[in-house]
Design brief:
The complex is a heterodimer of chains A (about 110) and B (about 110). Chain A is mainly beta. Chain A contains no helices and 11 strands. Classes of the chains: A mainly beta (about 110), B mainly beta (about 110).
């Protein structure tokens, strides 16, 4: 069993739709939870970072963490074609080493 | 956030040869890491690059295959030694920085081994 499970998709949505992404994990010791966006042929770009259960909002992006269920989510509201990318969840203990999900490829259709 | 550059951006190499990848950061950082992203897969941590001492390798990665140097707080190199086609991947360096001490990635080096 992988430490971090993420449905690789692909996921295709019309412009303006809400995109819902999620990851589950097995190690309850994970303390830090991140979402990265990776465009084709680019390095991952940090989108959201949180270290507690609950919701965190930044513009059109909302990250949710449920430590009791070992489940994290990312929601993208009013999705745009420019949101088309691969989204990676990443988790870490207290040592900065990241464990990544497989990544979900999202396409937003104009 | 830190600005990270990598050289080369891509390369095509013959099996049995070695390639050294450079990672340069525009500010001093304490933590630097090297990751591998194999085709169609997610990122896997190779090692932590320690300034002034030997790198710390993750399970499945060894120094003879992936020697790492970190002579100062802004620069590191990763060498992929005695390459085989299975080493074809994107290699990325990352650093920890910013107020929240989050992790930022370089653009990656795309390696194809024939």
């Amino acid at each position: 069993q992988k430490e971090v499970e993420q449905d690789p998709g692909p996921l295709s949505v019309p412009e303006g739709a809400i995109v819902s992404l999620n990851c589950t994990y097995s190690n309850s010791a994970f303390q830090y939870f991140m979402w990265y966006r990776q465009y084709s042929r680019k390095g991952p770009e940090l989108l959201m970072y949180t270290y507690s259960s609950g919701n965190k909002e930044d513009g059109r992006f909302t990250a949710q963490v449920d430590k009791s269920s070992k489940y994290i989510s990312l929601f993208i509201r009013d999705s745009q074609p420019s949101d088309s990318a691969t989204y990676l969840c990443a988790l870490s203990l207290n040592d900065y080493k990241l464990s990544f999900g497989a990544g979900t490829t999202v396409t937003v259709r104009a | 956030s830190a600005v990270i550059s990598q050289k080369p951006s891509r390369d095509i190499c013959q099996r049995g040869t070695s390639l050294t990848i450079q990672c340069q950061v525009d500010s001093q950082v304490t933590m630097m890491f090297w990751y591998r992203q194999q085709p169609g897969q997610s990122l896997t941590l190779i090692a932590t690059a320690n300034q002034g001492s030997e790198a710390t390798y993750e399970s499945g990665f060894v120094i003879d295959k992936f020697p790492i140097s970190r002579p100062n707080l802004t620069f590191s190199t990763l060498t992929v030694s005695n390459m085989s086609p299975e080493d074809s991947s994107i290699y990325l360096c990352s650093v920890v920085g910013g107020i929240q001490e989050t992790q930022y990635f370089g653009p990656g080096t795309r390696l194809l081994v024939l």
